[in-house]
Amino acid sequence: MRTPHKIIAICLVDRENKPIFFKNYCEEFSSIELEFSAFSSLDTVYHRIKTKQIDSNFLGSVCKFKGLTVYGWLAYDMTCVLAVVEETKEMPKDIAVPFLSKVYSIYIDSYCSPFCYSHSYLSDVAAEKLKQMVADTNDKY
Questions:
Q1: Which InterPro entries match (predicted)?
Q2: What does DSSP say about strands 80-87 and 5-13: parallel, antiparallel, or unpaired?
Q3: Residue 71, pLDDT above cutoff 90
Q4: Fewest CB within 10 angstroms: 3, 11, 24, 75, which?
Q5: Residue 119 above 50 pLDDT?
Q6: What is the DSSP letter of 91?
Q7: Is residue 127 over pLDDT 90?
Q8: d(CA 123, CA 139)
C-alpha cells in the first residue's frame, strides 16, 4: 500500500530569498525538479505575505506540481520552511504543522550553537536529525 503522504524534500529560505538548506530524501526524484517546485512556491508565499493572507505560521499547501505538493511554514524572522510532499491526498494540518515547526527548531538550534563550526547553516548532527525525522514521519503516516 502506498503512503498517502511521503515527505521527499525539505527546503529553508531566508527573508531575502536565499536558500539556507535544501535536501532531497528520495532518489526517485531529481533534485532539480524538487528545487524547482520548492522555489516556485515562494511566489505564492510572498504574495500571501504582501496581501496579508496569513493568519498563522502554517501556510498550508502553497504549490502543486506534477503530483507533488509544497507545504509552507513561516517563522517570525520570515524564514520559510518548505516540505515537498508526494501525496495521494491532502496532508492533515496536525501532521504538517508539528513537522515544519520542528524543522525550523532544528535549524535554529544548529545555527545558534556555539559548538557548530560548520560553514553551512546546518551542522552534520542537525542534518542527521532532519533525515531521521523525515524517515520517522514517513513511516508513521
A1: Longin-like_dom_sf, Sedlin
A2: antiparallel
A3: yes
A4: 3
A5: no
A6: P
A7: no
A8: 24
- Phi-psi region at 17: left, alpha or beta (left = phi > 0; alpha = psi -120 to 50): left
> Residue 12's pLDDT is what?
92
Helix, strand and coil percent figures for the chain, each rounded to 5: 40, 25, 35
Quote the CA–CA distance of 81 and 111 in Å, as a whole number. Answer: 15
Determine contact, residues 134/10, Cβ cutoff 8 Å: yes
Cell of 81: 520552511
Q: Give me the pLDDT at residue 4, please.
A: 57
Judge contact between 8 and 24, C-beta under 8 A. Answer: yes
Sequence letter at residue 16: E
Architecture of domain 5-140: 2-Layer Sandwich (3.30)
Structural domain boundaries in the chain? 5-140
Question: Cα separation of 129 and 88, whole Å?
Answer: 26
What residues form DSSP beta bridges with 60?
72
Q: Which three cell numbers stand for residue 117?
A: 563550526
